[in-house]
């Protein structure tokens, strides 16, 4: 059941404190430079932090990295760690660390991840998107825009209720449904009766948007992406800021009910399902109505400077789509916005 509550009042607090934003520094271009403290935060992750059973070699390796986060680690040091999983985690993390250091900025590393085969865990990609958005949304006073931005780095569960297309945080939904919200006793009740598996979350609207400030780290608010709702406009604003931050281009993004052009010039799927659907439609194929209903949002993108676009389609509208998969999970790929825009490379 979805419900609405009163708005937050008072000064705006810090948001997304777990993004790592305060561990980084901005360069002259406003991008996030890699710092030692940012690297140390990765070494403190549970996958890397030593445990009671850790061997002496692992303890020495971890201490050396905490003391000198950029220290070059030889293969022999990793191989000396007895636990196989720990060795694997160190290889993975240090490879990612080296990408960060080579790029120099979080944004540079993010873009570089997609220039070849992606060989880093999705968790790292999502974390980079998280902190990049925290940077470009610094000073934002619109809770709906912040909540909409969570789509860029957190999976959502789509639900149609009373004519509204609602998106809730997938991890939060699963936590509620499993009974974890209520502790071990609550979980047993859920497993036995299923009565507490119904999730009660708050729908974020203009009238109550202030509640986001005290709950932003709980991910327990819901937004409606129904055409005409303010959260959809807020998502358009995030997309505009994302493109401007990486490409320095001003674009206008607006929600659409449908694509009116019979033979449009360019489209971008913001997830795997949308890419397939738009490709099939553009090529003249028929898409099953059930799959079409998986589209949760359509957008039209217009460039402020058409000369920034490929000459053959300059001035034309670029269409975006965001969809849920067969399980009604929305997995947005914000990198598609950066890699697939029809830019005039010349």
Describe this structure in words.
The chain has 14 helices and twelve strands. The protein has 346 residues and is an alpha/beta fold. Helix 4 packs across helix 5 and helix 7 crosses helix 11. The N terminus is likely disordered.
Shape: globular
Q: What class do helices, strands and sheet pairing give?
A: alpha/beta
The counted number of beta strands is: 12
Helix and strand sequence? EEEHHHHHHHEEHHEHEHEEHHEEEH
Any idea what the radius of gyration is? 22 Å
Taken together, the total number of domains comes to: 3
Largest sheet: 6 strands, mixed
Termini Cα gap: 53 Å
Mean pLDDT, to the nearest integer, reads 90
What is the number of helical segments per DSSP (H or I, 4+ residues)?
14
- Helix proportion of residues, in percent? 25-40%
Strand content: 15-25%
Q: Could you name the ranges where pLDDT drops below 50 across 5 or more consecutive residues?
A: 1-8, 182-198
Strand adjacency order, main sheet: 1-6-7-5-4-12
């Amino acid at each position: 059941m979805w419900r609405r509550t009163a708005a937050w009042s008072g000064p705006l607090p810090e948001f997304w404190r777990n993004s790592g934003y305060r561990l980084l520094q901005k360069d002259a271009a406003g991008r996030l430079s890699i710092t030692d403290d940012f690297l140390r935060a990765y070494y403190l992750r549970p996958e890397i932090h030593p445990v009671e059973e850790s061997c002496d070699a692992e303890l020495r390796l971890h201490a050396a990295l905490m003391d000198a986060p950029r220290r070059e680690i030889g293969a022999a040091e990793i191989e000396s760690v007895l636990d196989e999983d720990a060795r694997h985690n160190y290889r993975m993390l240090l490879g990612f660390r080296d990408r960060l250091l080579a790029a120099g900025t979080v944004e540079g590393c993010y873009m570089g991840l997609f220039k070849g085969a992606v060989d880093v865990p999705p968790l790292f990609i999502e974390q980079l998107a998280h902190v990049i958005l925290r940077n470009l949304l610094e000073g934002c006073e619109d809770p709906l825009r912040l909540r909409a931005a969570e789509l860029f780095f957190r999976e959502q569960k789509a639900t149609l209720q009373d004519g509204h297309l609602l998106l809730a945080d997938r991890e939060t939904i699963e936590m509620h449904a499993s009974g974890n919200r209520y502790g071990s006793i609550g979980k047993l009740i859920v497993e036995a009766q299923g009565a507490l598996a119904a999730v009660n979350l708050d729908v974020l609207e203009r009238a109550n948007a202030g509640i986001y400030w005290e709950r932003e780290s709980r991910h327990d608010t819901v937004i409606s992406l129904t055409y005409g709702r303010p959260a959809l406009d807020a998502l358009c604003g995030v997309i505009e800021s994302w493109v401007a931050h990486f490409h320095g281009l001003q674009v206008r993004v607006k929600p659409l009910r449908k694509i009116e052009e019979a033979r449009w010039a360019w489209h971008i799927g913001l997830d795997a399902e949308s890419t397939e659907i738009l490709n099939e439609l553009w090529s003249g194929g028929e898409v099953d109505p059930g799959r079409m209903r998986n589209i949760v949002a359509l957008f039209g993108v217009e460039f402020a400077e058409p000369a920034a676009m490929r000459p053959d389609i300059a001035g034309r509208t670029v269409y975006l789509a965001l969809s849920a998969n067969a399980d009604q999970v929305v997995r947005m790929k914000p990198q598609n916005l950066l890699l697939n825009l029809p830019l005039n490379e010349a």
